[in-house]
Specification:
The protein is of the alpha+beta class. It is built from 32 helices and 19 strands. The strands form 6 sheets. The protein has a 5-stranded antiparallel beta sheet, with no helix packed on it. A 4-stranded mixed beta sheet has the order 5-6-8-7.
């Protein structure tokens, strides 16, 4: 019965089993828990903000003011999957539940798409089933729930689908498959993990070259230039579909830290940070080698994911070249696995200098270790090839010639193929050597060479760092051996022949999945948390701040609030967690992740004035003339205590300034002057040297303009500023919100310019008699990108429909023509 069902509904049956095991792996979700750990907790604020904004205003947000002085929302890919299908989950379900289900769905899709790819390249149900399970539960896929990197997971799941369409396009000479490949690339870009998509495109480019020039599985002679044009056309389709995300991103890139040459987010050291240390290749088979999670002692500062590909998967991959008809394809995936690994080593090897030098925009990326996903996928494919050979082994032996049978028998040890037998022996020897303590000096040597500490704070001697992980490492080595022996047993012909191919595949797949899950469960268990309503509920600090309904910003120097918790409650903070905030704001605060000016109390009076700071949250009590206590030892959401202060000197969010000074010096030369105690930013604006307004020099600071401004926020990205009385001379209305070219202003209903002032913030020049200023953020790049995306989607749909109609007409015409000829 099961064999008949798999023969009739192969993909459906595999998908059903994958769905069952995925649901079991993520069981805590069904009991009411979610995945608000690590980056998901910081990303929750962005996703919740977008969902709430869409429900209230019926659109996606263009701007948000809550972190780093405000920044564009649509252009910043750090805000997550705004245009990816998973965003729909957050409109239909609570945001935290929708985010968690995204991990479940795309872990499942990683298995299904791998199954489809393997079936497409000629694998039977058994091989495709094992290969799909091997990839979906590999560390590079399922452990992404631990750091909360859903964007990486989305693209990892799409890799096999992209290669499937490319395979069909080149092997069957079907132009429609190129279109489907382009659509897959487009959705990968919308994930919007551009770096992982970069790696997907690398794999696709290599695969296309292989299929066109080296593969023996092409259908007929298709001119390479035609295929090349279709491949390029498919990429154009993909980038056009993603234009709604790409165009605003490219517009914003020069404003972000990664787009500015010489910033702290550029250069060789930045690009090679979080490279995969070469010794950690051991983790693909023995995952406890460099310690896991809190016991990690490797050369990265911390590590929350896994590279484990499975001892069982590695053993099956050893048999890949025994499968006739797929040896060239096997060599391709050996190459892709090696390329992914060497590239992942990043700055640890000279090789990375090549892509760093010649590949466009690769210098703006870091954490190149994530490309190891290509290696994990390749190992899963090779394991499927080995499974295919094992599944058909009895038939192959029976049909082989006498000489071939003799050759086959010579290559076995106790009935096992030699590569498999040698692999199991190697696992056994490794386990015994580990138990004898022989690996310990090697691990200590690597731990001693670590350039930073691990997430557990291992700063003692190297031997003490290894202590916490060596016993689990021994246990892990024997765990790998046990699962290896299970695969070896299932590979014995006497065992294989007792079951149908499908039943045997279920048993082998179960061993592979259990092998992988026995490791990855540790990463999954570390990822689950309580619901957002509990984890991120309003604490005493928030409840105190919420009593003030005016527009203001909070200055935070408290670990609990250095992330995005305050944004969840709609409170503006001077800092936060993003990674791609406006770079001039970073400079104003004293450098990205250094915040030297923010940490220097001498700069606080002017810094607070520029940023519109009304409250200060500190982790300790202070006696500072500028501050008056509001609440001491307030309980934070994280269980610590905080001290809340109000700034004695009024720092309104908007105020009138009588004069502006054009300064042609670089920003880093202007900032010290602006924050100097002898300067008052409320009396004089500093604007860029190319500004169309302002003076070129001033003899002394002009007098302050005493005209109060009432700030009304219609919605994030739209402000109404009402002056208490009209100025008698030309002036400027300064706003403590970051400047960006997409800000538009009107003064009493007439269009007005918006200028950059005080390094990163903005001001609007107003004429005498002005009383009302309106500011609205409208993204021109988003409007253009949205138009291109809609046009591309309509074109793709039109092509597919037209192709189907023409195909039906051909089918209808052929019988009529044949009949007339007869």
């Amino acid at each position: 019965m099961f064999s008949r069902l798999t023969a009739r509904f192969p993909t459906l049956m595999a998908s059903g089993i994958y769905a069952l095991v995925t649901a079991l792996a993520f069981w805590p979700i069904w009991t009411g828990r979610v995945l608000l750990s690590n980056d998901q907790m910081t990303g929750y604020a962005f996703r919740a903000y977008a969902a709430e904004y869409a429900r209230e205003f019926g659109a996606v947000p263009a701007w948000y003011p809550h972190l780093f002085g405000g920044m564009p929302y649509l252009a910043n890919t750090q805000h997550g999957d705004t245009f990816f299908p998973t965003a729909l989950l957050r409109f239909l379900l609570p945001v935290d539940v929708g985010m968690a289900l995204g991990f479940v769905i795309f872990t499942l899709l990683a298995g299904i798409f791998t199954f489809i790819f393997l079936r497409g390249v000629g694998m039977g149900w058994a091989a495709a089933f094992v290969g799909g399970g091997a990839y979906m539960f590999s560390g590079q896929v399922i452990s992404m729930a631990s750091p909360g990197h859903d964007g990486k997971l989305f693209v990892s799941a799409l890799i096999p689908l992209a290669l499937y369409f490319l395979y069909r396009a080149t092997a069957q000479r079907d132009w429609r498959q190129y279109v489907y490949f382009g659509v897959t690339v487009g959705f990968s870009l919308l994930s919007p993990h551009f770096q992982m998509t970069y790696y997907l495109l690398m794999a696709a480019g290599f695969f296309w070259l292989f299929m066109v020039f080296l593969s023996d599985q092409k259908a007929g002679a298709d001119p390479w230039w035609r295929s090349a044009l279709l491949f390029v056309g498919a990429l154009v389709v993909g980038f056009a579909i993603a234009a709604i995300q790409l165009v605003p991103f490219l517009d914003y890139l020069p404003w972000s830290p990664r787009g500015v040459e010489g910033s702290s987010s550029t250069g060789w050291a930045y690009a090679t940070s979080w490279s995969m240390p070469p010794e950690e290749i051991m983790n693909t088979i023995w995952p406890a080698f460099s310690g896991m999670l809190g016991d990690y002692w490797g050369r990265n500062a911390f590590k929350l994911h896994s590279e484990y590909s499975g001892a069982t998967v590695g053993l099956l991959a050893l048999l890949a070249f025994r499968l006739p008809g797929h040896r060239r394809l096997a060599w391709f995936f050996v190459f892709l696995a090696a390329y992914g690994a060497i590239f992942a080593f990043g700055g640890h090897t000279p090789f990375y200098r090549i892509p760093y030098t010649i590949l466009p925009m690769i210098k703006s990326t870091r954490a190149v270790g994530m490309i190891f996903t290509l290696s994990s996928f390749s190992l899963a494919v090779l394991a499927a090839f080995g499974t295919q050979w094992l599944a058909a082994r009895a038939t192959v032996v029976m049909k082989a010639t006498a000489k071939h049978r003799e050759s086959l028998s010579e290559r076995t040890i106790l009935g096992m193929p030699r590569p498999l037998a040698f692999g199991v022996i190697a696992l056994g020897v490794f386990a015994l050597v580990a138990a004898a303590g022989a690996w310990r000096p090697i691990m200590e040597a690597f731990a001693g060479a670590a350039s930073s500490v691990n997430s557990k704070g291992c700063v003692q001697r190297a031997d003490l760092c290894v202590d916490a992980s060596y016993v689990p490492f021994i246990a892990d080595a024997f765990r790998a051996l046990i699962f290896g022996l299970a695969v070896a047993a299932l590979a014995l012909p006497t065992v294989r022949r007792r079951w149908t191919t499908e039943s045997w595949a279920l048993a082998l797949g179960a061993v592979v999945l259990l092998d992988l899950y026995s490791v990855e469960r540790r990463y999954l268990s570390a990822a689950f948390s309580e619901r957002a309503s509990t984890t991120l509920a309003a604490d005493e600090v928030v409840r105190t701040l919420e009593a003030d309904t005016s527009v203001y910003r909070v200055f935070v120097l408290h670990e609990a609030y250095m992330q995005n918790y305050l944004m969840v409650h709609g409170i503006r903070s001077t800092l936060g967690y993003n990674g791609s905030e406006i770079h001039r704001y970073d400079e104003l605060m004293g450098g990205k992740n250094e915040w030297a000016n923010a940490l220097n109390p001498a700069t606080w009076p002017n810094l607070f004035a520029v940023l519109g700071v009304k409250y200060v949250v500190l982790d300790q009590q202070v006696q500072f003339p500028l501050l008056e206590p509001v609440g001491s030892a307030l309980r934070t959401y994280s269980g610590t205590t905080a001290h809340l202060y109000r700034v004695r000197q009024s720092n309104p969010y908007a105020f009138v300034v009588g004069s502006a000074l054009r300064v042609r010096q670089p920003d880093d030369a202007v900032i010290p002057t602006m924050l100097d105690a002898r300067f008052d930013p409320r009396r004089l604006l500093i604007v860029p040297g190319d500004a169309s307004v302002g003076r070129d020099s001033v003899a002394q600071l002009p007098a302050a303009v005493d005209i109060p401004v009432t700030v009304h926020e219609v919605r994030p990205g739209r402000l109404v500023l009402q002056l208490a009385r009209a100025p008698t001379d030309s002036a400027y209305v300064y706003v403590a919100e970051n400047y960006f070219p997409d800000w538009h202003a009107t003064v009493d209903g007439r269009s007005a310019s918006v200028i950059r002032a005080q390094v990163s913030l903005m001001a609007v020049p107003v004429p005498p008699g002005a009383q009302r200023v309106e500011l609205e953020f409208r993204s021109r790049s988003y409007a253009l990108g949205r138009l291109v995306t809609l046009a591309a989607l309509l074109a793709v749909i039109g092509l597919i429909v037209a192709s189907a109609v023409l195909a039906r007409r051909r089918i209808a015409i052929v019988p009529v023509t044949a009949g007339a000829a007869a």
